[in-house]
Design brief:
Elements lengths: L2 E7 L4 H9 L7 E6 L3 H15 L3 E5 L6 H14 L4 E4 L4 E4 L5 H6 L5 E6 L5 E7 L6 E2 L5 E2 L5 E9 L4 H21 L4 H13 L3 H14 L3 H17 L3 H14 L4 H13 L3 H13 L10 H4 L6 H4 L2 H12 L3 H14 L1
Helix pairs in contact: 1-2, 5-6, 6-7, 6-8, 7-8, 8-9, 8-10, 9-10, 10-11, 10-14, 11-14, 14-15
Length: about 350
C-alpha cells in the first residue's frame, strides 16, 4: 500500500510548513505541496521541504484564484494521478498527532471511502484520509467540502495553530466576502448559510448570525447541521436573555434532529433563568438521555459526525438540575446530582 499526503501552502507559510510535513512523513511515501504563493517565496519553501522530507517532497505551483475548493481539487487530481492508495490531507497551519497509531495498518484494514479524524478539542471531525482514486469533487470558495466520509481513526487528532486576533479578523472578513458570493451563486444550498451565520458570530454581528442560523434551520436538508444551527441560534438568544425565544428555537432544532442533546441543555438553562425549575429539570434529563453517558442502544452521539459541545453533553445538564432541585427545595435530589456531577467532572 502507498500513501501520498497533500498540503496547501501559500504566502508566508514557509516557517510553519516544517511542522505539518514532519507530522506525516513517517506514514507516507510522497508529500505533494501545492504552492499558491510568489516565485520569490518559493525558494524558502523548497529549503523547508528538502530539509524535512528530502526526496519525498514535490512542490507543484498553482495560481491562486480565491477558491479553496479548486485548490484542494488540484491537489486531489495530483493524488489521483499518483500510484497511491490513500491520500492524507494536512494544511500548513495544522499537524497530526496519531498517538502511536499504526496509520498504514488502519488504512489497509479499512474499506471506507474516507477516514475522519477529530480536531484536538474533539468537537468535530474532518475527512483527513481519502481513498484513491476518488472521483468525488471538492467544492466551495471557502469552508470547502467533499462529499466523502467515514468513521474516525481509532486514535489521534489534528491540531491547528492558534491565530492572532488580527489574523482571525482578516480570515473572517475574507470568508464573509466568499460566502456572500457563494449564496448569490447558490441561494438554495443550505450549508453556506450555516457558515455565514458562524462568520457573522465570529465578527461580533450577533443579530445577523441569529437570523442566518434560523434560516439555515428552516431550510432543512442535512438534519445534523440544521439542528446544530438551531443550537447556535438558541445559544445567542440565551446570551441576549431572550430565554423563551431560545427554548422555541431549540425545540425547532430538536424537530430537525431529536438526538442533539445540546438542544435540551440550552432549553434547560433558559428555563432555569425564567424560573421554570421543573421544566429545567425535565429538559436537562432529556439532554442526559442523548449525552455522553447515554444508555440507549442506539446512541445518537455515536452517529454524529459534526460539532459537539462536550460540556452540554456531560456535566452542564447535571449542573442545571442541581440548582433547579435546590430552588425547588428538593435537597436530597440536589445532593445526589452533586455526587454525579463530581463524577462527571
Amino acid at each position: 500500500m502507498k500513501i501520498v499526503s497533500t498540503t496547501l501552502a501559500g504566502p508566508g507559510t514557509a516557517g510553519e510548513l516544517k511542522r505539518a510535513l514532519s507530522s506525516v512523513k513517517q506514514f507516507v511515501d510522497e508529500c505533494i505541496i501545492i504552492w499558491t504563493g510568489s516565485a520569490a517565496e518559493r525558494e524558502a519553501v523548497q529549503l523547508v521541504v528538502a530539509s524535512t522530507v528530502s526526496n519525498q517532497g514535490r512542490i507543484v505551483d498553482w495560481s491562486w484564484r480565491n477558491d479553496f475548493g479548486a485548490a484542494r481539487q488540484a491537489a486531489l487530481d495530483l493524488a489521483n494521478a499518483s500510484t497511491a492508495n490513500w491520500c492524507l490531507w494536512i494544511d500548513t497551519d495544522e499537524w497530526f498527532d496519531f498517538e502511536g497509531l499504526d496509520v498504514r495498518a488502519e488504512l489497509a484494514g479499512s474499506n471506507e471511502p474516507a477516514r475522519n479524524i477529530f480536531d484536538a478539542s474533539r468537537t468535530y471531525t474532518k475527512p483527513k484520509a481519502i481513498r484513491l482514486p476518488c472521483h468525488v469533487k471538492w467544492s466551495g470558495l471557502t469552508h470547502e467540502s467533499i462529499n466523502v466520509g467515514g468513521t474516525p481513526f481509532s486514535k489521534g487528532v489534528f491540531w491547528e495553530r492558534n491565530k492572532s486576533s488580527e489574523e482571525l479578523t482578516r480570515k473572517h472578513k475574507r470568508d464573509l466576502r466568499l460566502l456572500e458570493l457563494e449564496i448569490r451563486r447558490h441561494p438554495n444550498e443550505a450549508r453556506w448559510y450555516y457558515y455565514l451565520g458562524d462568520t457573522y458570530e465570529l465578527l461580533g454581528k450577533m443579530n445577523e448570525a441569529i437570523g442566518v442560523f434560523r434560516k439555515r434551520l428552516a431550510m432543512g436538508g442535512w438534519a445534523e447541521e440544521a439542528a446544530w444551527s438551531g443550537y447556535r441560534a438558541a445559544c445567542l438568544l440565551y446570551t441576549q436573555k431572550k430565554y423563551e425565544e431560545a427554548i422555541a428555537v431549540a425545540m425547532k432544532g430538536a424537530a430537525a434532529h431529536p438526538g442533539i442533546a445540546e438542544l435540551y441543555w440550552i432549553a434547560s438553562v433558559s428555563s432555569f433563568y425564567m424560573g421554570r425549575y421543573e421544566h429545567a429539570v425535565h429538559f436537562a434529563e432529556l439532554a442526559k438521555v442523548h449525552g455522553a453517558r447515554s444508555t440507549c442502544k442506539l446512541k445518537a452521539l455515536k452517529a454524529r459526525i459534526s460539532f459537539r459541545d462536550w460540556g452540554a453533553l456531560s456535566w452542564k445538564p447535571l449542573e442545571v438540575q442541581k440548582f433547579a432541585f435546590e430552588r425547588l427545595g428538593m435537597l436530597e435530589e440536589c445532593k445526589a446530582v452533586q455526587r454525579e456531577l463530581e463524577e462527571n467532572k
